[in-house]
Structure formats: structure tokens, C-alpha cells
């Protein structure tokens, strides 16, 4: 449970409210500030400062400076008048919860819009860079092609000039010595008739010798054969003689049913994108939202995934973790119990998931001061993972609380 900060200070002018919150040794990077028009939150674990503002402010122009052990938040007023007090005076928890949830939803939409605009800007920059690179590459290709064309034309012109020069020299030689050329041609024809047969025989002999040499160099063909190898089909890492086959087969059957299970009520989901109809994709989205601290967004993702597939225990267990963060303790107990019901029969493949669900339900019981029920869940988790030092310490702490309560009751 967070510790509420009460030693803050604030000042105001007709146009702006200034709030100073001491950070109590927290680093600047670990301070989470959320500001809307009627709500302000400064969170640096384990401390929390909340302000339900007396009048609306301009959250677009609001700013915060963190340093020297203090966070100073500047909130421009929407109306130029002095406030009677900083916060509204009401003990209506439902009203405060409504203001808080509206602020979180507005902050989530702002983050989503900023992320979308940032992605669009990056996409535009990538597109511009790609177009520029393609333009430069095209200019380079055109330049190279122009150089090739010029070189080809020059080579063609030189070849044509050389051929023309050879023709002219041949014509001049024929005109100067016609009789000598005729005798040379006759001599070539006679030599060709006398030596042609011998050349052909030599070529045939060489070809046959090369063919025989290649056949002699070839290795003998290998004998063909098949080797039959059989493996024992096993999904779990334990040896067959050490495992519990019926429980493991039942767990695998449940997993297969979970992969095939799809809610029949699909008409309400026609407006969703294709990836948003995938329970695994929604689970990954919820996990990412949880890591970034967007617990409401994670709950929404898990809710939609559960509507699509009610057989995946991780969806209920992860939603229970979100409810713990949002202090929805009874819902956390319900989701953890549902996850444990789906994580049956108990096998090695779901041991870690059963331990997590037990710890989350036990934590919710303890926060509701139901320590006996919480101790049972922590002991169940410790039985699964007996070497976990953190679990050992938490279980002992709950025992101490129960023993201390019992001792105090006996004294009374």
C-alpha cells in the first residue's frame, strides 16, 4: 500500500498554481507524474501524492520540474481568479474514483495520440529518406547508362572504321596482284583436301581416349539401404517411467481445447481489426501495457482476449496481477481462482503458472487482512518452488503476522 504525502506546499497567482512535492530521496528518473485538468498524481514508490483540484486547469500548458529533492508542478488556471483551497473537500470515494479513472483514461488517450503522431512522423521521415535514396540511385544509374552508351557508340564507330579500312586494303591488294592471289587460293584448296582426313582421325582418337579415361576414374556405385530409427514421442521433459501419464495427457488435451476454443458470439466483434481477434496478440498487448504501467489498458486487452477464448489460464492470471495494481482485490482473487481451475491437472509444464497464480491470490487475501487464507496460497506456491528465497521470506512474514495477532487476542 503506498504512503500518502502530506508535507507538500502550494502557492498561487491569479493565473497559475505552483505545487511543491518533496521526493524523499527518490531519483528523478523514478518519479511518475500524471496531470489532467482536474487531477494531479505524483508517484515515486512507495510514496504517492494525489490532488483532486479545486478548479480546472489547462493541462496542455502544465509543466513539471524535478530536481534537488523536490518536484515543482506549474498548473496554469483556466480562469484568472484566486482559489479558496487547492483541493476539493469531499470524502466521497466513488466520486474520487470516477475522477481518477477519467484522468487515467484521458492520459492513456494522450499517450496513444502522441505515440501515433510520433509513428506517423517516423514513417514520413522514412518515406522521404527512401524516396531521396531512390532518386539518387536512379540518377547514378542514368549516369552509368549514359557513360555505357557513349562508350558503346565510340567502340562501334572504331570497329566500323577498322572494318572499312580492311576492305579498302583488300581491294587495293587485289587490284595490284590478281595472279598471285589466285595461286594462293588454289594451293590452300589442295592442302585442305590432302590433310583434312588425317586431322579428323586424330580428333576422333583423342575423343575416344578421353572418354575411356573418364570411365576408369569413376568410383563404383554404392549399395542403397534404409535404416529404421524410431523415437519415443514425449512432450514433457521427464522420463516416461517417472511421469504421470494420465495427468499429462489430460493437460495436453486441455491445451489443445484452449487453442481451438473461440467464443461463438463473434457478431459484436465485427468492428475489430484482424489482429485484434487473435487472443495471443491481445495477450502480448496486455503484457506490454502492464510493463509500461498502463494497468487499465492491460485489463481491457485481457478482457477482450477472454471474450475470444475463455480457456487460456494466463489471461486470468495476468488480469489478476493488474487488479492487484489497481487495488481491485476481490477481482484479483476471482481471476486467480479461475486461473488455478484451468491449470489442472498439476503437471511440470504448468508448475510455474500455478505458483504465480497462488502468490497473486495470496497477496490479495493478505491485503484484505485475510492472512490465514493468504498463508495457504503462499504455502502452496512454496511447495511448488521450495528453493525460492523470496517466497520463503513472505511466507514467514505472514506467519509472524498471524502469530502476533493471535498473541494480541489472547492478552485481551
UniProtKB/TrEMBL annotation:
Region (Disordered) residue spans: 171-223
Q: Name one GO cellular component term.
A: dynein axonemal particle
Q: Which UniProt keywords apply?
A: Cell projection, Cytoplasm, Neurogenesis, Nucleus, Repeat, TPR repeat
Gene Ontology MF: a single term: nuclear estrogen receptor binding
Domain (CS) ranges: 3-87
Q: Where in the cell does this protein reside?
A: Cell projection, Neuron projection; Dynein axonemal particle; Nucleus
Where do the TPR repeats lie? 355-388
GO terms of biological process kind: determination of left/right symmetry; epithelial cilium movement involved in extracellular fluid movement; heart development; inner dynein arm assembly; nervous system development; outer dynein arm assembly
Q: Which domain of life is it from?
A: Eukaryota
- Where does this protein have compositionally biased stretches of type Basic and acidic residues? 199-216
PANTHER family, per this entry? DYNEIN ASSEMBLY FACTOR 4, AXONEMAL, DYNEIN AXONEMAL ASSEMBLY FACTOR 4
Record protein name field: Dynein axonemal assembly factor 4
